[in-house]
Amino acid sequence: MSPINTLIESGQYLINHFDEFLRLLGEHLTLVLVAVALAVAVAVPLGILAERHDWTKSIIMGTGNVAQTVPTLAIIALVFPLLGLGFLPSLVGLFTYALLPILTNTVAGLENVDESTVEAARGMGMTENQILRRIKLPLAVPVIFAGIRTSAVLSVGTAYLAFFIGGGGLGVWVITGISLFNTPQLLAGAIPGALLAIGLDSLFAFIETRISGETHATQSPAAG
């Protein structure tokens, strides 16, 4: 069967099972967005703490590196006895995997802020919290968002593994298609996932551009 015919059959499979596709896509997207949102909520404060207190940096970064090296399926296996099957253990696995890129980029973004800008802000009487809020974070936004974009793209691929513990998502079609040698079903689950990863990356790039533009005026100590 030619690749063109396979793609046509994949499209037909998707159309014939469109209601199921919407459900699986919704489950997949929910897993990814919730995991990335939780990772941002945890990683950004931890990154700030690591940047401001050297003694915490090795502990926080070391923990993040260890979490990243553990396969998602292993994390799922570890939490399964406690959380059982379904959405929650899948979310824990994705959250753990999404944490490190945001954490490392937050630390890098804050540490790479030009020291002369920080010293100028101190010379104007700004407190450390004001410097963080008005100078460092606005300047670090592009680097932090690069980490968020990386985490989002990684999470789209990792979310396929949720199938193994009843977490749903597009992995239902992909892994079932592999098991049954059903290429149209496999591609009907895989291609939308690839497009979803591209779409989320573009969305976060757009948000990054807008935020960077809005905070540009606050990058000088004289602002605010």
TrEMBL record:
GO cellular component terms, semicolon-separated: plasma membrane
Does the record carry Transmembrane helix as a key word? Answer: yes
Tell me which PROSITE patterns the record gives.
ABC_TM1
List membrane-spanning regions: 29-49, 70-100, 131-148, 160-181, 187-207
Print the keywords alphabetically.
Membrane, Transmembrane, Transmembrane helix, Transport
ABC transmembrane type-1 domain location, by residue?
25-204
Pfam families per the UniProt record, alphabetical: BPD_transp_1
Subcellular localization: Cell membrane; Membrane
| Top-level division of the source organism's lineage | Archaea
Q: Which Gene3D superfamilies does the UniProt entry name for this protein?
A: MetI-like
**Membrane topology field:** Multi-pass membrane protein
GO BP annotations listed: glycine betaine transport; transmembrane transport
Q: InterPro entries in the record, alphabetically?
A: ABC_transp_perm/SBD, MetI-like, MetI-like_sf
Chief location bin: membrane
**Similarity comment: family membership:** Belongs to the binding-protein-dependent transport system permease family.
Q: Which PANTHER family match?
A: GLYCINE BETAINE/L-PROLINE TRANSPORT SYSTEM PERMEASE PROTEIN PROW, OSMOPROTECTANT IMPORT PERMEASE PROTEIN OSMW
In Swiss-Prot or TrEMBL terms, this protein is called ABC transporter permease subunit
